[in-house]
Structure formats: C-alpha cells, structure tokens
Request: fold
Amino acid sequence: MLSPLTLLKQSYVSFTTQLNKYFYDELLYILGLEEKQQSKGIERLPKSRRQNGTLVELIYTALLLNNINFKNETEEFDYVINVVINYTNRIGRL
Reply:
C-alpha cells in the first residue's frame, strides 16, 4: 500500500513472459531438449545424453511403435516439437 507505485500513482509493467534461467534449463531437460550452441533455437539431445522418460523421447517412441514415417529427420523433429508445445500449453491452462 505504501509502495512508490501506489503513492506516486506510477504504472506497473510486469514482464511475466521472462523465464528464470534455472527453470528454463530444467524444463528443457524434462522435455529432452537442449539449446543450440551456435544459433538460437533448440534441438534433441545427442544419443549419448538422451533419457528414456523425457517427453520428446516418449513421442519418438510412440511414432516408432505406430510405424509413422516422415520424409526426413527435420520433418519428424518439427512434428514432435509441435506435439510437445501443444501438450505443454494444455498443462499451462490447468
């Protein structure tokens, strides 16, 4: 109540879209992704560091078990990321 924002009637701008770096890294780990080193973006973890229970790996396994084929790895990765984004958006709405 006695904050400068209230007393001086200043507007409050909230930047809620900024992520905590620790949270972001943990989220990428849970999803089974990592940030690209050379450019902005994300990629699947290298084979040596993949975890079976991550969301990305579970989706890749489901695609493999259902014999769903793609033209190339890029198209397959784009499809998996699309599923991950839709799933995490649904969790965020709960």
